[in-house]
Amino acid sequence: MIQRRTQNPAFWREEYKVDESDHEFLYETLADAAEPQSLDSLVFSIVQRRSELDEKRIRNELSRGLIYDPADSYNVGDKIVFLALDFCLGKVLATRAGENPEHGDFSVISVQFEDDQSERMFASGLHTAHRLNREGDVILIGDGELMTAKDICDEVGDAVADTIFEHLRQNSDYFINAGLLWLTTDQMVPVDVGLLNITEAALEMKGQPTSTADLFDLVELDPDVSESVRVFSLETAMHADERFVQVGNMEQHAWYLRRLVPDEAIAIPPALIYEPVPYEHLGLDVELLQTEWEINDEWTQGGLAENVPAQVPSVIIHLIYPHLSSGTLPLTEATSSIFPRGTGVCTAVTLIDGRWGNRFRGWVMHEGRYVTGLGEWYAQHKLPVGARITIERSNNPDEIIVDFRPQRMKREWIRTARVDDGRLVFQMMRQQITCEYDDQIALMVPDAERVAALADAIYDDDRSVDELVAQIIPELVKLSPQSTTHVKSIYSAVNAVRRMPPGPIFAALARLPNATDTGSGFWGF
Questions:
Q1: Which CATH architecture has domain 188-260?
Q2: What is 67-94 written as a DSSP string?
Q3: C-alpha dist (Å) from residue 124 to 70, 85, 128, 134, 498
Q4: Neighbours of 16 (CB within 10 A)
Q5: What is the DSSP-derived secondary structure letter of residue 331?
Q6: Can you state the angle between helices 465-477 and 487-494, rounded to 10 degrees?
Q7: CA pseudo-torsion sign 481, 487, 490, 496
Q8: Which CATH class is domain 70-124?
């Protein structure tokens, strides 16, 4: 079987480059298209074209001469194709008897190659084994066992897409995109600043994210061009204008004014920024791993959190301090299956208060792995760190229900954090609680400004997670008559001053001298 280069996934991952013919093909494909094309469709077209060219090249090369096989005999003047030499074509100039007792009777042919006129010697009529012997196998060029273009795209499509996207991006004189769709620059309909000013005024008046279709009705573009190209041209112009931001989902683009989008929907709040910390995940014992999966932090990698069904009806999360202080919800593997995904930096959603039925705007910030817009909701219901919150689907994929389970107001003893001499210290204080909560995660922070200042100092000092855990665990242990604290409490406390998933915290705890695992998630010191 001839090994086609395009049938080898390694070629697409490691060797494939967009050459001049691919560039021309991409341009012609887009220019001939009646509507904008997705990157995936361009990838498929390139893979299919390259595969067809590879097959055609093989057929052409094989038709030029005999296939070299050391077991076959050749005459002067025969033209031979050498598969092992990338289908080089040579002509037999001479033949003589071979001289090697190990191989018996055989011949040696002198071959001159077409490309560089060089001459080389090859065995023919060889009756002993040789790595180039075809042993009577037929050279197959049919497609019965070949991967289709779809098969190739399924396996290596992402790598090819990265290569093609980079080429399109670097050739902005020829290609232009609006989100995931592409056209040639020659196909674009001009959208002047006057039309964009009208669009801005319309969004200002509406005061909410608006679909491209609704905005399209307000501007007049060349009617001789297809509607899809006119819509594409408008969206491209809006993408390039800093006044606008695309906040729709994958199915329907929607636009809003950047100045009306909350800052935390565009840039990650400092309290939520996680800078990955290397640690030995395999060093965590089963109990710590189970707790890590139970916490289900959005920055936890691997484990049960990544094996949730794609269509879970609802998810329960426990609020930690960085999200409470930022007015956000974590976008975990589970919660991200409920919230819609868009192509912009954020996606607008409607959040529905499960208690009172009020609707308010939320923003799914994909890069930061959170949903923002819940600050007032937290304040209205006086939700604490540790609150058990339910996130639930509705009949509309853009409307998400957020709820909690209330309980009769009562005063509970809750860990309370304060700053003393540049350190985070804790004490038990009575606090009014009106909802169900996880008492291991629960934490009150009466002076948020001082805690934020301490977090800044910890960042500036580049204090390690080991130092933080070593400083915090004695403070937590002293609050318990048993002189122990739960690993969830350590996780919650560390996150008051540094955003971090449980894995690195638990690994630091396991390394800490004098820290003792007393069972059931509790540790002494």
A1: Orthogonal Bundle (1.10)
A2: EP-TTS---TT-EEEEGGGTSEEEEEEE
A3: 5, 17, 11, 13, 74
A4: 20
A5: -
A6: 120
A7: negative
A8: mainly beta
Q: Name, in order, each residue with C-beta under 8 angstroms of 288's C-beta and a sequence gap of 6 or more.
A: 487, 506, 510
Q: Could you tell me the residue ranges of all domains in the chain? A: 5-62+143-178, 70-124, 188-260, 282-407, 412-524
CATH of domain 282-407: 2.40.330.10
Q: Which position has the higher pLDDT, 149 or 283?
A: 149
Residue 376: its H or E element: helix 375-381
State which amino acid sits at residue 430. R
Q: Which two tokens stand for residue 43?
A: 């990838």
Q: Is 239 exposed, middle or buried (0-12, 13-18, 19+ CB in 10 A)?
A: middle
Q: What is the dihedral of CA 29, 34, 39, 42, to 10 degrees?
A: -30
Distance CA 329, CA 104 (A): 80
Q: For the segment 20-46, what is each residue's pLDDT rounded down to a tens digit?
A: 999 999 999 999 988 899 999 999 999
pTM over 0.85: no
Residue 105 banded pLDDT, cuts 50, 70, 90: confident
Compute, in degrees rounded to 10, the torsion defined by CA atoms 88, 94, 95, 101.
Answer: -80
pLDDT at 136 over 60: no
- Report how far residue 371's alpha carbon sits from residue 101's, in angstroms, rounded to the nearest whole number: 80
**Long-range contacts: 75-81, Cβ < 8 Å, 24+?**
80/111
- Residue 197, class by beta-carbon neighbours within 10 Å (0-12 exposed, 13-18 middle, 19+ buried)? exposed
